[in-house]
Amino acid sequence: MEIYNYMGYELLEKIKKKEITIQEVVQSTYDRIESTEQLLHSFVNLSKNKTLEKAKEYDLHLKKSNLAGRLFGLPFANKDLICIGGFPTTCGSKILEGFRPPYNAFVIEHLLKEGAIHIGNTNMDEFAMGGSTENSSYGPTYNPWDLSKVPGGSSGGSAAAVASGQSIFALGSDTGGSIRCPAAFCGVVGLKPTYGRVSRYGLVAFANSLDQIGPITKCVYDSALILEIISGKDPLDSTSVDKKVDKYTSELKEPINKKVLGIPKEFFGEGIEKEVKKSVYKSIEKLESLGTTTVEVSIPHLEYTIATYYLLCMCEASSNLARYDGLRYGKVSDDLSSDVYSAFSRTRGANFGPEVRRRIYLGTYALSAGYYDMFYIKALKVRSLIRNDFVEAFKKCDSLVCPTMPSTAFKVGSLIEDPLEMYTQDILTCSINLAGIPALSIPCGFDSNNLPIGIQIIGDYFDENGILNIAYQLEQELGIYRKTPPLKAGGS
Ligand code: GLN
Q1: Pocket of ligand 1 (CB under 6 A)
Q2: How far apart are CA 278 and CA 276, in angstroms?
Q3: Which helix (H) or strand (E) holds 477?
Q4: Share of the chain above pLDDT 70, in %
Q5: Ligand 1 nearest atom to the CA of residue 177, by list position
Q6: Atom of ligand 1 nearest to the CA of 422
Q7: Which residues of 24-44 are buried (b: 16+ CB within 10 A; e: fewer)?
Q8: pLDDT at position 40 over 90
Q9: Beta-ladder partners of 456
Q10: Do the beta carbons of residue 365 and residue 371 sit within 8 Å?
Q11: pLDDT tens-digit map of 46-96
């Protein structure tokens, strides 16, 4: 087996036992990138030279001492909107070309402290706005299972990199599904933590009341391990919660036979592909065979989630993105000494892509005097109703189980001209962000075109332990997580 095909925890074992060097591990991911990047385009920037030096330094350290961090020598890819001091960070946008943040994000600090090695930043929809990674100013990423399909988004580069062995794990961000959607489309594990579990210090904001950072990994064990390391209170992010971080890896093997799983009936409604439903139902049967009981629950306001989510995220985005004017942030592409306001708008017009501009227009409109109550305030009220639906559902069960996406990966170019249709793809993911609860996606099967299908497990507030436990048991039962993608274009 190639080195890049091992799980993260297996490589850590091998490094610890000195069966393999860190240089070999890092080199293997770079070799893999070299041979596949032209097909996939998962990365926007690589940090090769520095990284190989770091690997050498770490190997020398291991020769002298057994003291090493929990991720010592493990390569990771970072979504291009999480700041790494001195490393180019573009958020998939032309407007941030050449920007190098002056500091590390909280999550990066924690990964580096444990010895993880950053190999590069991954491609994404511009400012995380999208579900296919086609909205990147640097061109799309392609799905390793079928190169004619999208990898999902907005963390499509991260998911494609992990699925194809270009990286052992990656970071993503999830505002309305951007970790879980690409995880489902690329056949990997993607976890969105509870709002407040992971600090957003150093994450470039899209919609602050929804954004969370989370891991994208090849297996559930790695996901639990990374979450353990990046979680916790951060004085620099006032929305991070001061709550003890569970030892997520230690409860994965606990039996789940006492668990009650809620099946939210609206998540299996119209518009969900037959093959997706079938595969998810099969997994539910497997979970039942492990002793869980299932009960039907309802999220009655699910039909309002797309409208509510898009209104709120556009409002927040229009305000967050006001800083990119070429003066405070962003590249200067106009003469700011003349009429400064028209110079701002020319800079923004020339450097933001069409989806970002659309969201700024709509968000600004919805927040304007006269419309604020009608749109923004109303959406906030509906958000409370959606949150209450989940609170009610969790009175009857421990976790919810449903599909992650309504379909498997779609063709590159097929939805890009139809933003409303693209938005409806988030129907099963964005309500979770509105409620602020945790959810993860793991692969549960393949459709007739050999494209991965994702099952979503949703937890109550701060019950990451519970959903990881169920996911781990299901993953072991299904036994498909080691399947690797063919990196070819498919038939349909
Ligand atoms: N697809 C959603 C959107 O375009 C989700 C994005 C995200 O989670 N960052 O807003």
Answers
A1: 128-131, 154, 174-178, 206, 313, 426
A2: 5
A3: helix 464-478
A4: 100
A5: 8
A6: 1
A7: bbbbbbbebbeebbeebbbbb
A8: yes
A9: 402, 441
A10: yes
A11: 998 889 999 999 999 999 988 889 999 999 999 999 999 999 999 999 999
Maximum distance among all Cα pairs of the chain, rounded to whole angstroms: 71
Q: Which pLDDT score, from 0 to 100, does residue 328 have?
A: 84
Pairing of strands 75-79, 169-174: parallel
The CA-to-CA distance between both ends of the chain, in Å, stands at 30
- C-alpha to C-alpha distance for 181 and 171, rounded to whole angstroms: 14
Q: Is 293 helix (H, G, I), strand (E, B) or coil?
A: strand
Q: Which two tokens stand for residue 406?
A: 């309504």
Q: For residue 473, is pLDDT > 90?
A: yes
Q: Which amino acid is at 434?
A: L
Closest residue by CA, ligand 1 atom 5: 176
Give 487 Cα–ligand 1 centroid separation in angstroms.
25
Q: Write out the catalytic residue numbers.
A: 79, 154, 178
Interval 7-31: pLDDT, tens:
999 999 999 999 999 999 999 999 9
φ, ψ of residue 455 to 5 degrees: the values are -105, 140
pLDDT (0 to 100) of residue 326: 87
- Residue 357 belongs to a domain: no
- Distance from chain centroid for Cα 180: 6
pLDDT at 329: 84
430, two tokens: 């964005």
CA–CA separation, 241 vs 28, rounded Å? 38
Q: What is the CATH number of the domain that holds 114?
A: 3.90.1300.10
CA–centroid distance, residue 309 to ligand 1 (Å): 9
Q: What would the pLDDT profile of 417-462 be if each residue is shown by its tens digit?
A: 999 999 999 999 999 999 999 999 999 999 999 999 999 999 999 9
Distance 178 CA to ligand 1 centre (A): 5
The number of distinct structural domains making up the chain is: 1
Q: Which residues, at least 6 apart from 452, have a Cβ–Cβ distance to it below 8 Å?
A: 145, 184, 185, 186, 187, 408, 409, 443, 445, 446
Region 399-409 average pLDDT:
98
Tokens of 454: 């994702």
Q: Which residues contact 87 (CB under 8 A, 6 or more apart)?
A: 45, 47, 100, 101, 118, 121
Q: Is residue 144 part of a domain?
A: yes
Ligand 1 atom, smallest distance to 153 CA = 1
3-state secondary structure of 324: strand
Provide the residue range defining the domain that includes 234. Answer: 3-266+277-298+391-478
C-alpha 488/C-alpha 481 separation (Å) is 19
Is 121 contained in some domain?
yes
Whether residue 191 is contained in a domain is answered as yes
pLDDT recorded at residue 491: 63
Type of residue numbered 396: K
Q: Facing residues of 95 across strands? A: none
Show the CA angle centred on residue 442, arms to residues 459 and 291, nearest 5°.
Answer: 65
State which amino acid sits at residue 403: P
pTM across the whole model: 0.98
